[in-house]
Each structure stands twice: as C-alpha cells, then as structure tokens.
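so my prof wants the structure for this chain in the tokens format not the other one, which i didnt know existed until like an hour ago. anyway here's the sequence
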Amino acid sequence: MRVLVMHRVPDAFVRYARNLDHIRHQVTYVSVPERAATLPADVPARRVERPGTGDTAAEVIAAVSDLPRPDLVVALSEYDLLPAARVREALDVPGPRVADVLPTRDKVVMKTAVAAAGLRTPRYAPLARALAHGVEWTGRSVLKPLAGASSEGITTYPTPDAALAAVRDGSARVDVDDFEIEEFVEGPITHIDGAVTAGRPLAVVASRYLGTCLGYAQGAPLGSVQTDTPPATVDFTLACLRAVGITDGPFHLEAVETPQGPVFLEVGARVGGADVADSFELATGVHLPSVQLRLLTGESAWVPEPPATDPDARYGWFVVPGHTLGSTHCRIDGEKTFRDDPVVHRWVQRAPHEPVTAALTYADADIPLAGVVGPAPTPVLERFLTGLFASVTVEPAKDPR
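here's what i got, hopefully its the right format
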C-alpha cells in the first residue's frame, strides 16, 4: 500500500517505526522544513518538503504531483484533518471527506449533531445568523472560531449583546463567516480521552482540568488530573462519539460538569494535546497515537494489558506557557520545592540559555515549564498542581549568551 503521511506530529510522539511497516508499505512523508528533524530517522521512506507558507492541502497536492496516487492519506494533527480530507478528495483517495470531518472540526456542525442526539450542549449560533437575528440567551458569552484549536481566537463577553456589539464596531476582529457565538456554561471542565474500534471502547479515562485552555492562551498555567471514570461517563462519551461519527481511533472530548449532568463542549477525532497521551499510557498501558496509526493502516489496535497499579493511583500533567512573555528567553522562580517532590514523574524546564517559542503551544520542548505527575490519588495531584501554579513565576529575560 502507498501511504502518504502529512507530517506534523513528531516521531517521538507517534512512534512511526513501531506502528507502520515501512517494508510492506511504500511510505511518503510530506513535511515543512522546520519539522524535518522530527521525522523518523531510520526507516526506508520517501521524504518530500512543502513550503509551509500557504494552504496545507494545496501544498501537499503539489508536493506529490509527480508521485503515484497514494492508497491512504494519514494525518494525525488536528490542524491537518480538514486539509487531509481535501487531499483525499482531490486525489480520489479512500477515507474521510470534508463532510465526514466537519462534525469533529466545525463547532456548529458538531454541536448540532450532538444536540440532535438528545445531549446537552451550550446554546449557540453561527455568528452571521446571530448578527442578523440575535440569540436566545442573555448571560456570559463566547466568540469562537468554527475550526479553532488551543483556544486561539476565543474571546469572552458579559452578554451576547456585548459580543455582537464588539463585532459590529470592529473591536472584535473576527471573520464573521468563520465564527460562532456560544453561551458560556459555568462549571469545572472535564476532558475524556480514549480510543474506540467499530464504536466499542478500547480504553476511556476521564480527567479534570486545573485552569482552562482559554486561560492558558492568555498566559496562565494549565494542567489536569485523572479522576474516576464511571459507567455513566463512558455512556455519555460513546453517545457523543456516535453523534459525530467517531467509530474508530482516538478521541479527545471536553464537557462542563454541572449539577444537572455533563454539558458537551467539543470533541476531536485525535489524541489530546500536552501530555495527555503520556498520562493516559501510564494509567492504562495504551499508547493512543499507536492505536490511531495502526487502525488507519488496517492493523489490529494491539491494546496491551493495563499495568497492575492501585486503582487510586492517578496521573496528571501541567504546562506553563511562554508565548505571552514577549521574550525569547525566560527566568523561572519558585519551582524548586516542587521539582523534587516525589509525586513528579517527569519535569521539563527551560534552562536560562534555552529559548521559548512565541507561538501558542503545549509542547514540552518549547515552553518554560511542563511535566507529568503521579502515580497518586486525585486529591494529592490536585493539591500539588494548585500549589505549583500559585508559587511559580515566569518572567521575560535577555538571552544570556
């Protein structure tokens, strides 16, 4: 089989050599130059560059125009799911088309499908419709890109009228056709991760955020800790997946916990970001990117037996951002007490001479501070992360070289 991989996610995360038979398949990786170093090194494969400055789908199609048509297009990053669908359509390759991908990328299409299945969602409307006809709620509201990621481009307002006024007067710089307005639902946010095959769960783990993705985008720390995953949570999750058509592969679902039960926020047909995959593997023995790649290539999901650990031994992760510093280097203070705590499984910290990226990212290697914690009971992990977030400071610094 000829396999075209739209490369963005590093090999260290995906483990291509372990999960993709490069002898049996003819594999072509299409990558931008700055990500070439994260390709698998010792596998027989064709490596093709694309500029990375224009439309992703158009660049990939141009890059492989002289090659035989692939039998499979693989895209593992949420940023590439829609472009991969367009590549499949243009090259007439089997697999999900744009219409198949929209319920897991377009937030209006997504919530419409989930609400039609009888599940609770925030009230919402396409922004163009809201500007023309108003909305049916009066409380705190959010403007969101329809296909956004990592809470980029999200803004909150005390009322929908305030949000719509900001669009009309230009203070909210948005593309009306690419945004929605959504009711802000109060409550702790849970993310539920796992994988399914033929609609059946391989493994499901619920976690509770400490901080929010929006807060992280604005410069605050973020983390999560694993919690109980009762049957009701699994049932809710599977109902959401059925509604949007996720039947095979990994998923990352977010919901608000309310006294009346969970309220769906969004779901992706992908592995969660930050160190969700590592925490999940530590708790279950299941490496979600491996499951995803193996299912895409028609292999068995190969789910090992879960590790023999105390059921109260949970894991979590944390990230401290640097994209709002306005500096390529940073100074970190207040972390020493936490760094040597026995609850720390992995600690990744920028040295004074190491740069941080100006882009919004959860990648350990590009931000001031990140890590994985556990195993420990959920309350222990929550206390640790709460103390860490309250004590650690990150400030801009000059390049010491």
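also thought this was worth mentioning. Residues 33 and 94 are 28 Å apart (CA to CA).
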